[in-house]
Design goal:
With about 290 residues, this protein is of the alpha+beta class. The chain contains two helices and 16 strands. A hairpin with a 4-residue loop joins strand 14 and strand 15. The longest helix has about 30 residues.
């Protein structure tokens, strides 16, 4: 009986050591392959969270033509939005900051909910004055209060003194049209060293400002469909950048062009964390079943 108990104890200790070895291997794997986990299984699209680095403007000394030195506030990096011209130092430029979600969740919607929660495309009021033309500017007359974010806000900023909100919305409030969840594709054939070209479907990108909603997905010409944002992605550091222009279609700012630029890092889907957790649970259960009496 003592020999049997000794053998069980020895077997248990060996299995415990094996379990610790497996846990160590899984931990090492989760750390050493973190950047690779940013890629999906087929290696052509990113998954996870696009963390958004805040835009920064700082005071900088500039030497003028006559040799004098002046202090100006200049863009030094990060994410921004600007109207009419792609110049982050222009007067209309707004520095973006990450919202409560920290950035853009790929493959899902960081949408906002307005009040009332209904799309308002051009003519949403109907023909109220009897002239045969539907009334109501697209995306207008929502309650001018902060929207609700069921899944956290991706990006926020202040525009001309008003809090401004970005949502990735499955149905556009301004158009009533359906949009796919945000996604980013990698062109592996374009890679130079560790940097590859990427494109992003951000057609769900919509802005809420001063009681109005504006679709701002990539669309340089509002007579055409939404296109793709373009940028680069570093396979080793997970750093990315994306830029696009968008001409507003309808509403109080019809035909105005917005320029968007975001940069940051991709936080991979925590596949290794799930693997680690499931392995740990399995080993704990295994140890309990094999523990000697």
């Amino acid at each position: 009986m003592a020999d049997k108990k000794y053998n069980l104890t020895k077997e248990y200790n060996m299995q415990k050591k094996l379990g610790l070895f497996l846990l160590s291997a899984i931990t090492f794997s989760s750390l050493s392959t973190q950047s690779a986990l940013a890629l999906s299984v087929d290696g052509t699209h990113l998954t996870g969270l696009l963390k958004v680095d805040p835009g920064i403007k700082e005071q900088t000394e500039v030497v003028t033509a006559d040799g004098s030195v002046i202090v100006v506030t200049a863009y030094t990096g990060g994410s921004y939005f600007v109207m009419n011209q792609n110049n982050p130092n222009s007067g209309s430029a707004a520095m973006l900051r990450p919202g409560t979600a920290g950035g853009i969740a790929l493959g899902s919607y960081n949408n906002f909910v307005l009040n009332p929660d209904e799309p308002r495309p051009t003519g949403w009021k109907g023909d109220i004055d009897g002239d045969g033309i539907p009334d109501g500017l697209a995306g207008t007359e929502y309650d001018n209060v902060p929207p609700v974010y069921p899944n956290g806000s991706p990006v926020l900023f202040s525009f001309f003194g008003n809090d401004t909100y970005v949502g990735l919305n499955p149905i556009g409030y301004q158009s009533g049209e359906a949009h796919p969840a945000p996604s980013v594709e990698i062109d592996m054939s374009s890679c130079v060293a560790d940097v590859c070209s990427i494109t992003a479907d951000f057609s769900a990108w919509e802005v809420f400002w001063n009681g109005s909603a504006f679709e701002q997905g990539p669309r340089p010409d509002n007579t055409g469909p939404f296109g793709l944002a373009t940028g680069t992605y570093n396979l080793i550091t997970n750093e990315y950048n994306l830029g696009w222009s968008s001409q507003i279609k309808g509403g109080p700012f019809n035909n105005v062009i917005g320029f968007w630029y975001i940069e940051g890092t991709v936080v991979p889907v925590p596949a290794a964390v799930w693997l680690f957790g499931s392995g740990l649970i399995a080993l704990i259960g295994f140890g309990r079943n094999k523990k000697p009496a």
